[in-house]
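Hey all, quick one. A colleague (J.T.) asked me to put the flavin-adenine dinucleotide job into the tracker so the inputs and the structure tokens live in one place instead of scattered across chat threads. No bug as far as I know, just bookkeeping. Sequence used:
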Amino acid sequence: MPAETYDMVVVGGGTAGCFAAATAAGEGLDVALLERKTEDEGGRIACGDAIKGTSTFPDVIDLDYLREESFTNEGITLARFENPKTDENLDIGFRGGNGAIVDRKRYGEVLLEEAERAGTDIHYETVVQDVVQNGAVKGVTATQRGSVKEFEADVLIDAAGSLSLLQDKTDFDGTTFDTNVNYQQFCSAYREIVEVDEPVDWHNAIVFKPTAELGYLWYFPRTPTEINVGLGFQMNKDPMKLVEHLRKDLQNREEFKNATVKDKLGAALPTRRPYDSAVAPGYMAVGDAAGHVNPCTGGGIPGAAKAGTWAAEAAIEGISDGDVSEGALWEYNRRVQTDFGKRFAAMDL
Ligand SMILES: Cc1cc2nc3c(=O)[nH]c(=O)nc-3n(C[C@H](O)[C@H](O)[C@H](O)COP(=O)(O)OP(=O)(O)OC[C@H]3O[C@@H](n4cnc5c(N)ncnc54)[C@H](O)[C@@H]3O)c2cc1C
């Protein structure tokens, strides 16, 4: 079967992939976004759903629509740190605006809608299996509802999230793409969406409680009665029984008596410095696929959005100049490293 040909192929329909696709399609490029999930499952991602008040998003999608549809609690004014040894709390008020908790599924759906509205061809149930390469990356092969398909493009955007399969398949020899990545630089995390009977009295707070395994439990109120609860541990520590640990903690909290669990999901997230370089000829990695997560908090949504947009902007220029070499795409690395990249790298230390 002949390959489907695009200017840009984006693998992964999360925050990074949708912002990349919306940016490039909005500028008139032919863009395909390949997502392994079904359309119904699109946007469902394991997350704490919290966004800092000072976070900004690139203006390449309808941000008002995103906010109206998915920001369910915009009244977060403080972070509360519980001390498990003394039962005392430390409250730290936010400077520079309220934080928010989102309905993560609806947020993800809106991003996919916006990428499509900008002109992206979204291919659901399309699981990328391999990278097509000949000196530079030329495309991918994928299975789509039982058939093998090939997608060709000038630039491939790897937005496939943590531990991206594409990076195992790509030969980065002769490039400076950061391949110094191992599983100990990741955090294993799990969350539940829990409905409680009575409004919690801390619905203006994101609540954290440290665990022994270099991680924390969190309680983030999507609404006064719908709470995102979860926890994670750094994978250079002994494995932690996440579900059991969470269950025990919830049982000891009065406000979660009679609570019902509405959704459960787990995932890995990078908690290392951002990749030194996330470009190779015809290839750019964005979001979790390039370590664009705050290594202390695990917050990765705003970084993924910015990285997706900046990568697409560098790719648009490269494609229009007929040069998608590592050097031509390098501006993307510079933008990441001179923005959140240097901050996250310092935090990683
Ligand atoms: C439990 C947990 C809690 C978190 N809490 C927060 C928080 O409160 N605030 C915050 O800012 N960040 C949080 N993060 C981090 C944040 O969720 C990520 O940094 C962000 O989602 C990264 O977006 P992304 O687009 O890079 O990757 P993802 O959102 O992971 O998207 C990757 C997409 O690629 C698809 N995909 C993967 N492989 C393939 C393939 N082979 N073929 C086709 N498609 C593929 C996946 O299905 C997925 O849709 C949390 C992460 C976890 C795991």
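Adding what we noticed when we looked at it: The chain has a mean pLDDT of 96. The helical segments are 15-26, 63-70, 104-117, 165-169, 242-251, 301-321, 326-329, 331-348.
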